[in-house]
Amino acid sequence: MAPTPSTVSLPRPIAPPLDDEAPEPVVPLGRIAIPAIGIDRPMFEGIRLPTFDLGPGHWPGTAMPGQIGNMVLGGHRTSSFADFADMDLLAPGDEVIVTTNDGASFTYVVETTEITDPNAQRVVQQTEERTGTLFACHPKGSVRQRIVVHLALRA
CA angle, corner 100, sides to 120 and 67, nearest 5? Predict the structure, then answer.
């Protein structure tokens, strides 16, 4: 019998880093493509700024692509490759395609976008469904807030 969401323990996100500038091990996870805004970039494990300098980063302890829970990915809007520069242009129904190193591909669909406080921990809250969250600083060039895009895994 396949596990159902109520019988699966949810992932446990790590706490936000105390030092955003501290280096992290470079751990490639795969690629992220967002056709609506012209993104096709490598994706890494980690949420510190040196990781975001390489490409979007996966928040450790959140769901991995395709798994039950909330897969959380962050990235830069203005520095380095500015992978998430145009996140504000995403609309409901736009696709976010995540491909893992082993070649598995998962298509998420944009549901909603919101602006939050930079310390809003609900962004990493895990779900009993297969969901995803993209986040970056907002507005462009400022760390005052975060832009957050909520995703659902396409069945």
Answer: 55
> Could you count the other beta carbons within 10 Å of the beta carbon of residue 107?
15
Is residue 125 within 8 A of residue 72, CB to CB? The reply is no
For residue 85, which amino acid is it? A
Residue 4 in this model has a pLDDT that exceeds 80: no
**By C-alpha distance, which of 16, 111, 8 is closest to 64?**
8
Does residue 22 sit within a domain? no
Domain count, the chain: 1
- Overall average pLDDT of the 96-105 stretch: 98
Q: For residue 100, is pLDDT > 90?
A: yes
Which residues, in sequence order, are bridge partners of residue 145?
Answer: 138
Residue 86 neighbours by CB under 8 Å, 6+ apart: 37, 38
Q: Note down the domain range covering 92.
A: 28-153
Please state the pTM of the whole predicted model: 0.92
Q: Tokens for 133, please give them.
A: 């969250």
Q: Are 54 and 116 in contact (CB under 8 A)?
A: no
We report the CATH number of the domain holding residue 56 as 2.40.260.10
Helix (H) or strand (E) holding 151: strand 145-153
